[in-house]
Amino acid sequence: MSKTQLPAGRRRTGALTAAVAALAIAGGGAALTTADAPHAQTVLNPPAATAPGGGLPTSFADVVERVGPAVVNVQVSKKVAAGPGLMTPDQLPEGMREFFERFFGEDMLRRFGQPQEPGDRPERPRRTPQREMVGVGSGFIISPDGYVVTNNHVVEGADEVTVSLQNRKDYAAKVVGTDPKTDLALLKIDSNEKFPYVTWGNSEAARVGDWVIAVGNPFGLGHTVTTGVISARGRTIGAGPYDDFLQISAPINRGNSGGPTFNIQGEVIGVNTAIFSPSGGSVGIGFAIPSELAQSVIAQLKDKGKVERGWLGVMIQDVTEDMAASLNLPKEQGAIVAQVTPGGPAEKAGLKQGDVILAVNGQEIDQMRQLPRLVAELRPGSTARLTIWRNGREQTVQTHIGTLPDQPQTAAAGRGGDQGQRTAAGDKVLGLRIAPLNPETRRTYGIDEKVTGGVVVADVADDSEAADKGINPGDVIVGVENEPVASPADVVARVEKAQKENKRAVLLLVNRDAQERFVAVPLRKGSSKG
């Protein structure tokens, strides 16, 4: 596993560094098949032995004995052309430059690192040396013909892949396909032999507190078994757009990446991917991609060598308490549409900026992060039923599902940095000084020409609710309460109207760096004038 630290102390658990992403796949089945003999039989894994009268398991040995042969070590190598290893004088550290100049003179310094003249020494054939980088991870076999699941970051950029079984036999393997967004990869062992394999379990049925068994290759030691419980479900760790991890307490370390997390029936319910660690070693906080996500991704990699995902064509935000209040939404739920991609499926279906998507095909959206995952799992070309909140009531919209582009627009609208300089000019509202969008304010705040309407934020009071919500000088307010604004007077009038209607917050549509997002600003009495 690379020592590269993930956000908030998270670190990868495999070898070669790459983006740790999250996604996963679904499945059923629960057996380990040993197919070493020509007529191998499928044997169901017995549950772990339990103490008389129930209670804690007394041993996991029977399960480990059954599943162990299907867990593999994954070794990768990459050949990199080595450079000449010589620096020019300009590249030398200052102290070294002074040393060379003092003791060898300026002439030697000028010649340092330069090719020698033809007569200086006999010509020798030049060759470019190669340096081999080696990494180690884990994986598991999912079919008797030798398909192996591991992490994308274990095999990314590898020129050669070797898979080692528990019986110490080594096999060359090829990469069938990878999916960086979920950090999953599928390998195929280059052999006609029959291999022991494990099957997927149902991660949706796994509960917090259930026993789990992790098997892998930590620190390159070879097959190692650890146990623990499911500590939490649905963890988001910033690894990718489809984060939905199982958090487990079974210790996993460098080299465990790509290894399986088993339930006590010997079914794979997760793929070990990342750990939270201030030091690089296990502190009992590990993350596994749920099998319900992983199985569908692996199936697509096997069939197509890549993953196709559904696409709606919207940028979305979380619905905050203040946003819900300004929209008369009964509770904080769903994902608010900040932007609609021109020509995308959402625009063709009639979705609008400010709509709140509450459900997809009847499956409710409690938090924004659920929506990208649900849409991605839909088949491109299919039709979906969206439940939305618009104008204070629920509506239903039918939409076709597109294919996610290779580099789609960001799914969630972000915040930019501070822009421009402060000025005291303009009307006051919500603790903001606002001014018309004109050539002068456009130059002052560096506003993109693509922004063609709205009102410029010239200054923000430090003690205002707007400042607390992250509004900055240079932001452009393009809408208030889902209505466009063209002048400071429009903004003041809409805010005063919201106050008269006793709303707790007013909803602003703000453009920053040519990207639009909603901001709900709580209302104070008299706040329309500062």
Question: How is this structure best described in words?
Answer:
It is a single chain. By secondary structure, the protein is an alpha+beta fold. It is 16% helix and 33% strand. It is built from ten helices and 32 strands. Strands 26, 27, 28, 29, 30, 31 and 32 form a seven-stranded antiparallel β-sheet that branches. It has a six-stranded antiparallel barrel with strand order 12-13-14-17-16-15. Strands 6-7-8-11-10-9 form a six-stranded antiparallel barrel. A hairpin with a 5-residue loop joins strand 15 (260-262) and strand 16 (268-276). The longest helix is centred in the first third of the chain and has 18 residues, at 94-111. Mean pLDDT is 78; it is low at 1-46, 115-122, 408-426 and 526-530.
